[in-house]
Fold this sequence. Notes:
With 341 residues, the chain is of the alpha+beta class. It has helices at residues 2-8, 15-22, 59-80, 88-95, 105-120, 130-133, 146-153, 185-199, 290-303, 305-314, 333-339, and strands at 38-45, 48-55, 101-102, 161-164, 169-172, 205-209, 212-216, 224-229, 237-243, 246-252, 257-260, 263-266, 280-287, 319-324, 329-331. Helices cover 35% and strands 24% of the residues. Adenosine-5'-diphosphate binds at residues 125-127, 129, 133, 180, 182-183, 186, 210-211, 251, 255, 267-269, 271, 294, 297-298, 302.
Amino acid sequence: MLFSCLFQSGIKVGSRFVWRTALGLLVFLSPLVSQAEWHQASKDIMGTRITVEIFQPDAIKASDALNAVFAEMHRIDALMSPFKPDSLLSQINRDAYQQAVALTDELYALITQSLQFSALTKGAFDISFASAGFLYDYRNNIKPDAKTLKASLNKINYKNIHLNKEKKSLKFSRPGVKIDLGGIAKGHAVDQSIHILQSLGIKQALVTAGGDSRVLGDRQGDAWKIGIRDPRKRNTVTALIPLADTAISTSGDYERYFEEDGIRYHHILNPKTGDSARELQSVTIIGPDATTTDALSTSVFVLGKQAGLALVNRLPGIDAILIDNKGQLLYSNELESLTEQ
Ligand code: ADP
Ligand code: MG
């Protein structure tokens, strides 16, 4: 079953990779498990579709566990949403140039991690991309004119974000800096949800928030299967990946975008230009936790084919599947070697 799915998608997978990742990504095409022990629910939170599936023979405990995950997603949204004026993130964006803003331990840790990804990617991942990001409205086909966009660029630099370790506070060293955690917060929410499920004794689960998923254990002894969408054909799966106990994130140029004069304006921005990154159509990262895979899928999307794959190939335990702007599939070294077997 595992192998046929992978052959279908053109990937011949050797035993080692299948063993390590196989039991997680197969979720997608498995026939829906109808046994009473499996419970599934979906909700729209954080501007995206959240799906949770768990194995729990006790129906009341199962319902409590699903509700605990949705409550966690709402909690994170209320803390980190750039659109909710009461969120701590909005407070940071309003006040952090005038005065240091005290953070929660969680937000302090996530922003610290964001800055580490900025350093790792030489600024391709930068939560201060938001100074340009706020100028776009993809739903209403709005983009900034060249002059306005250019004026926003000097506010984009993660080095303008200063964290105080003792006070757990944040200050901007430049006026007009804004941050947005859209490239990492969903992965964090997925990881938090998995930890909650584990604390409730759940051993087999899938949590998906938009393009970010993490699986716990396997699915009835079979791998979870997760599909990578064809970036240009809705409801078509380009590749299926079988996984267990792992996380996977896909960033694509088809989530939020509009087209003007044949050019696609979408939600992943190159912080150096404030314009959408256009070398790739989608980037899928497989790794140990969803915070990492979320941040890296956005990062590699910005870095492009060569620099993106070079980064992934340097990172132990991280694999990638890229689809370039001609629709061509590209794999990181480990996956590439498996496709050649
Ligand atoms: P989604 O799952 O929302 O499609 P991705 O993981 O692909 O998200 O990340 C896209 C989001 O990341 C954007 O909506 C935006 O909030 C944020 N983002 C865009 N460009 C960057 C960047 N260069 N660095 C960090 N975050 C970014
Ligand atoms: Mg991401």
